[in-house]
Design goal:
Blueprint lengths: L1 E3 L24 E3 L5 H10 L2 E7 L2 E6 L22 H10 L10 H6 L16 H12 L2 H12 L4 H29 L3 H9 L5 H21 L1 H12 L3 H4 L11 H18 L7 H25 L17 H17 L1 H5 L1 H5 L10 H29 L6 H11 L3 H37 L6 H12 L4 H4 L3 H29 L28 H11 L3 H9 L7 H8 L1 H19 L26 H9 L10 H8 L6
Antiparallel strand pairs: 1-2, 3-4
């Protein structure tokens, strides 16, 4: 271990950039002589400097504190900062949300900050049961039931639909586990891990993709919750409440009453966006405790009202046969996968907190298909019971709950509908926060940490969601399926590139310090100052392109028509996007090899080089990397050979 010698360092005022001259290769380090110096070493690390640029042979650095880009001059005391103008005060105290980035360039804050650094041991607390508990809380929501009922709308009977769901969510479990590996091994989030495959700066593109999708889906999930909010209001104020409120909305797909319910849920959700992520876990605890009882209670109530009988055949007047049946079955499978498109991509955001190497492996591989299939079965059986009672193939099982209220407006029914609707609204709130607002906030804070934190990013997500007009996306099951497919074609292409790069090209090997470095020779700058991996760009478009004709035909129908084959290709949206981008990236990397791969021939050479990395001393290693002019020799063939001769069981 070593100590940094600070004899020549000076502290400046907060309005200045703190600088220090550091000798190259850390010649100013002094060895520790006693074990008592360990605590001193930790204190030294807190005020150590991060190298930012080199000029005239001198290394210019900016001080940071506690691994979060905190300037060291904050340690000098609680001195009152003086500003020369109101604008300067407003900029520093209001606009700049991460005070640790004051005096730090935008590029530096983008590369490394407290949210982006690898997760150290004390924060890696998720065991296998935590992941199981997380998916238990996630699987119970109205959207999952609507995805399940989509197969019934396509003409499948209940058991055919359930088989398709099992297949779909089994593939989802596999994709989630694959995407989780980089987070589990190297303890980094998606915005950082994406730098390995797309390039340090081009990783902004997949992050923006996910931000856009999170905003759209936040709006959709909030609109889905308008139905249970409306049922709660009708349970209190009467069935004619919607008729008593004049409709001046002017849209064929919604009414003033429905928009009012949507806005009520939006307003109630807003305070939860202001709660720090580590405290919002209590909401998920309540959700996980209440929602299963409400879901199974709803199922029992529906079957009892149907006198123990449900419609076992197809619930549609159109019963597909032959090729039509096959494509209906495939579309039911793909709808499950498309529903998980964002969760597959952002799997490292959760797996980076894995306590053990395989904490995120078997638990997710088992829990995702089992829990979501059981939850989907509830939706299928409720829909089948509703068809038995009312002769209508309801797309959303919550509509069956509304029918209960219409046909029996008694005290007991009103209380039951209100309580179940309340719990379902709570389920939607939890899902919307975990899957959408937090994802959007995390990504925006990674893009612009100086001005946006997770809270501000979540608020931005909610505000823009009001402009999405989700009632047009959710006006029918076919439009809902189209929205899922559109959602999938972009994110599946990103997931395909990331998987190909990690599992085939790099064989699980990541040079962690290079993910945070811009110098010449940085593996993930890909030999250009823009930090763009053009292979990833081409492969991404190869994944998107086959789905575009069908996407245009689906969105533009009936004004725009495309061939039947183009539409069938579009029905395979997630598979096509993932497979085409995966294969295209491997081919491009075979003919145009990338730096940093531990194998010479990615198709013929064998080997797996993933490691469980300890990152307690990462910041010191990273600063040592930044002190180098050229990283070309940072890893050489001898090191690769050592990797090849090492057997990694993880």
């Amino acid at each position: 271990m070593h100590r940094i010698n600070h004899k020549n360092s000076t502290t400046t005022t907060r309005t200045q950039t703190s600088n220090i001259e550091v000798l190259n290769n850390y010649n100013s380090f002094e060895p520790y002589n006693t074990n008592d110096d360990i605590s001193s070493f930790e204190n030294d690390l807190e005020i150590a400097s991060k190298v930012s640029s080199k000029n005239n042979g001198k290394v210019t650095t900016t001080f940071y504190e506690d691994s979060s880009l905190e300037e060291v001059d904050s340690l000098s005391g609680n001195e009152k900062t003086e500003y020369s103008s109101r604008w300067e005060w407003f900029y520093n105290e209001v606009l700049v949300v991460d005070k640790s980035t004051k005096g730090v360039s935008f590029t530096q804050s983008f590369l490394y900050n407290n949210d982006l650094k690898p997760v150290e041991t004390k924060r890696r607390v998720w065991s296998w049961y935590n992941f199981a508990y997380f998916w238990l809380a996630e699987c119970f929501n109205i959207n999952t039931w609507q995805v399940a009922a989509t197969g019934l709308q396509l003409g499948l009977n209940w058991w055919q639909c359930w088989i398709a769901i099992w297949i779909g969510y089994t593939f989802v479990g596999i994709f989630v586990v694959l995407a989780s590996r980089v987070g589990s091994a190297y303890h980094v989030s998606f915005p950082v891990s994406a730098r390995a495959s797309f390039g340090i700066f081009f990783s902004i593109w997949p992050i923006i993709n996910r931000v856009v999708m999170a905003v759209v889906w936040y709006s959709v999930q909030a609109w889905i919750c308008a139905t249970p909010v409306g049922l709660m209001l009708k349970s209190i104020f009467g069935l004619d409440l919607e008729e008593r409120i004049p409709n001046h909305f002017g849209s064929p797909n919604t009414t003033t009453f429905e928009y009012m319910c949507f806005f009520i849920f939006w307003v109630v959700s807003f305070p939860f966006l202001l709660v720090p992520p580590h405290k919002i876990r209590h909401l998920f605890t309540v959700k996980a405790a209440l929602v299963p009882f409400a879901a199974f209670g709803f199922l029992i109530w529906a079957i009892r009202k149907a006198h123990g009988t449900i419609a076992l055949g197809a619930l549609s007047t159109f019963i597909p046969h032959g090729s039509a049946f096959s494509w209906a079955f495939v579309r039911a499978i793909i709808s499950c996968m498309a529903n998980f498109a964002t969760m597959v991509v952002n799997a490292p955001d959760f797996s980076r907190f894995s306590k053990h190497p395989n904490s995120a492996l078997w638990s997710q591989l088992v829990c995702v298909p089992v829990l979501f299939s059981i939850t989907s079965l509830i939706g299928i059986l409720v829909t089948a019971a509703g068809f038995q009672l009312y002769g209508i193939n309801y797309w959303s099982p919550v509509d069956v709950l509304g029918k209960f209220l219409e046909t029996s407006f008694t005290k007991g029914t009103r209380a039951g509908v209100f309580l179940i609707s309340f719990v379902f609204a709570l389920a939607q709130l939890g899902t919307n926060i975990s899957a959408n607002s937090l994802s959007c906030g995390t990504d925006l804070s990674a893009l612009c940490p100086k001005f946006i934190n997770i809270r501000r990013g979540s608020v931005f997500c909610a505000l823009i969601a009001l402009c999405i007009c989700p009632w047009n996306l959710m006006s029918s099951s076919s439009k809902f399926t189209s929205a899922l497919s559109a959602y999938a074609i972009f994110l599946s292409s990103i997931a395909g590139v990331v998987a190909a790069d990690y599992f085939v090209v790099r064989r699980g090997y990541i040079k962690l310090t290079h993910l945070y470095s811009l110098q010449k020779g940085s593996i993930y700058m890909y030999g250009n100052r823009f930090g763009i991996n053009w292979r990833a760009l081409v492969a991404y478009f190869c994944g998107v392109a086959p789905n575009l004709p069908g996407f245009i035909g689906d969105v533009g129908a009936p004004a725009v028509t495309v061939s039947a084959n183009a539409m069938k290709l579009y029905y395979l949206s997630y598979w096509m996007g993932y497979a085409f981008s995966f294969i295209a990236y491997i081919i491009l990397c075979y003919f145009f090899p990338v730096a940093g791969s531990p194998v010479k021939n990615i198709l013929k050479d064998k080997g797996w080089f993933q490691q469980w990395v300890e990152v307690e001393d990462f910041e010191r290693e990273w600063r040592a990397t930044l002190a180098k002019d050229d990283l070309s020799n940072d890893i050489n063939e001898q090191e690769y050979e050592e990797f090849r001769q090492t057997k990694f069981n993880f």
